[in-house]
Amino acid sequence: MIAKASSGKSFGGLMHYLEVGRSGREYDRVDWIASRNLCGIDDPEIAGRLMEATAEQSLRIQKPVYHVSIAFNPSDPVTRPRMELVADRVLDNLGLRDHQAMFVAHRDREHAHVHIVVNRVHPETGVAWERWQDYPRIERTLRGMERELGLREVPGRLYRAPGHELPERALETSGERHARERTHEVSFREKVHQHVPELRQAQSWEDLADRLADRGLKIEPRGQGIVITDGEQFVQASRVARDLSVKRLEEKFEAPYPGKALNEPSREIDPAVRSLVRDIRSYDEVTRHEKALGDAEARAGEASEHAHQLERAVRDWRHRAADVSRSLSRVYQAPEEARARLADFERAHGKEAVTRQLCDHPEQFGPLQTVDRPGLVLTHRDKAPARAEARQLGGALDDYRASEQNVRSIVRSKGELTPDLVDTAQRAAGIARDRAQSAVRELRDAGQNLPDRKVLQRTIGDLASSLSPAELRLVRSFVTDAQAQLVAKFKGIVLELALGHERGFGR
User: Fold this and answer.
1) In this structure, what DSSP letter does residue 157 have?
2) Does domain 2-171 have CATH number 3.30.930.30?
3) Which residue(s) pair with 368 in the sheet?
4) Does the pTM exceed 0.85?
């Protein structure tokens, strides 16, 4: 078996591709579909919406979609139960058993293959799963399943099964591998890697140094890069995680690595300089928070409006369906049989033909209801009320179709609009609304602990005005170009106020 894995942003786009291909017309490519932790949903479109709603629990993750494709050899004796077993085992060994997932198997190739779409955000905790070392774990699982199920064995690229040669260099060095095999101890690199999720949350060099210090670690320059050390052992930061290299961190923080001064700020950075840098970064944090809050409020408004819109449309759809049922019972003696014949006639001849036939020949869809009219000799069974109601039935059907189309456009479903599908869509809309509103509340709560942005503006301006040119040049080495421009702007405002200008502060 061969596997590929990737991350992405859109559940909907991936689900659409898996269902109908890039052309949007490959309707026969899907062999079977199965889901995990999705309330039994087997509709990729609805599942994608529910996954998106769940992913909104995490405010930081940018790519919540995890996609794994597993291809079997054409000679492998593959069945659906076997494919599901392999997919479940992969999820289990990756630590994704409790995450939302959908399996989509295709039959458009010579070889059997299944796609696994997983939500990296846990549905209950809201914590995002990290992909670190996922390929070796996937390959280890596949090699074991090949032997367990008697499938063709494939030499792995990142994991070597007994009896196989490793074709390419593994992630760990040969020295680390030999040491691990000899001592069975965790390497220093692996110990540091356990803290990668927390280190990745750092927003500045100073923040990163604080997070490392909390764990008894620090950064030191070494050659052209940086290392992470506990004072005795060290490891290149780029070997712990690629995005911890000095180049990637400088791009992320938009500031050059300040070197030794950052680890020993009391010796090399004047307290006023350090305070100004901290206030500048706080100002950025407040600005980012305000933008995130604004975006979250907009999403919450959209999610709330979508849920209300769907609720109104579904209420009208059910009301129209009840009108049709009542009208059918007033026209026909066997209303459900008549309903089925009407549906067959509509599929064959169209909606307008149904309306005409209900006006002209309603009896072709079933025996009509009658009203007994007593005569001079015999009682007459009158069908006129049923015929009149049949004309009303045509209008009721038109209203029902329009209402149904409205619901379908909101849930974006092209298939049959079943009650289960509508209920699922409403649950997903409600979940999305509640989580969007929860995100707003969390951001508002977090904002209570942040300093006031206008106060920070004045503080930054005051501090910048009090520093010497040499001290300002030192500040410049710790801030980005955009932050330096803010300092100059706020400094100018303070000077104008000091000179008695009437220009409003913060404009």
Assistant:
1) S
2) yes
3) 332
4) no
